[in-house]
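Reference record:
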Amino acid sequence: MSTTNVVEIEGMKCEGCVANVTRELSALASVESVQVSLEKNNATVTSASEIDKEQLSSAVQKAGFKVK
């Protein structure tokens, strides 16, 4: 059963930012898909199992951004 999390992100300004966030979130274990929206300032992460919110936050921070 897949689970979906929406992460609100601060600081993204361009498609390069979107690519960085997508790369870091996609690298997490069990992630099936990542859709990052520059317009909505968020990322929708679908995974095979539940992902801890701290893992999501850490991945966003590693990409250089803050979670709202």
About this structure: The chain is about 30% helix and 35% strand. The domain at 3-67 is CATH 3.30.70.100 (Alpha-Beta Plaits). The mean pLDDT is 97.
